[in-house]
Amino acid sequence: MLGGTMKDLVIFGIGQIGEVIHYYLTKEAGRRVVAFSVDAAYRTADRLLDLPVVLFEELEARYPPDSHELFVAMSSRQVNKARESKVREAEAKGYRLASHISPRAVVWSEFKLNPNTIIMENNVVQPFATIGRNVIMWSGNHVGHHSSIGDHCFVASHAVISGGVTIGEGTFVGVNATIRDNVRIGARNVLGAGTLILSDTPDNAVFMGSATEMSRVPSNRLRSI
User: Fold this and answer.
1) Please, which contacts does 49-55 make with residues 24 or more away whose CB atoms are closer than 8 Å?
2) Which phi and psi angles does 132 have, rounded to 5°?
3) Is residue 33 a contact partner of residue 100, using CB atoms and an 8 Å limit?
């Protein structure tokens, strides 16, 4: 805080996730985003959403950490290790990491929001549930009572995390995944779209849902839907 006002904000990441995070932080949180940032090897444009794209290697000189905060808006690439690494780099440079809970999310009254974590609209976080640092909660998830989501996770839309679940750090939870109550998910798991997890999992496990088979009858031959 500077003079009772929020610091200006820089978003690291120039992909679609960066654009989405920009929307939430400006439209919902009322933050003033002044620039995007990216590593030199990945800069493909000089501007994004009418804001400058600054090399991360030059960020401290142009947008110093004493007057700016940072949000690392990256995907689950490398099972979230890439985003985790950049968060650590940003903190080593002295940046405070921003966070946000959508006003259209429902969280229990004593919930603690950690750095570089965003909880988008229509998430439900029930009493006594905890969510770690550097977690992206996309829209419409259910986090049951007494559950714990570790640091550096990414939870896509409409996952059901039942009561008493523990999710290890760096795990990716896909769209419409369901985890039974009191299950312990290991670190760096990948739970694909539509998976159903009924028992504990080891570290680095991968579960992929089954795709619906295409009908042999084409749509122009269907008699009814």
Assistant:
1) 49/19, 49/22, 53/14, 54/10
2) -80, -165
3) no
Where in the chain are the domains?
8-98, 99-202
Integer CA distances (angstroms), 225 to 177, 205, 211, 216, in order: 27, 38, 20, 15
Question: Among residues 25, 30, 27, 1, which one has the least CA distance to residue 12?
Answer: 25
HSE, side-chain direction, 13 A CA sphere, residue 184:
3
Prediction pTM value: 0.95
Cα distance between residue 27 and residue 59, in whole Å: 24
pLDDT per residue over 106-151, tens digit each? 999 999 999 999 999 999 999 999 999 999 999 999 999 999 999 9
Q: Is the domain 99-202 a CATH 3.40.50.20 member?
A: no
Contact residues for 134 (Cβ-Cβ < 8 A; gap 6+): 72, 80, 83, 84, 87, 97, 114, 115, 116, 117, 151, 152
- 3 token code pair: 């003079």
Q: For residue 214, which phi and psi values (nearest 5 degrees)?
A: -75, 135
Q: What pLDDT sits at residue 4? A: 54
Q: Which fold has domain 8-98?
A: Rossmann fold (3.40.50)
By the 8 A CB rule, do 197 and 207 touch? yes
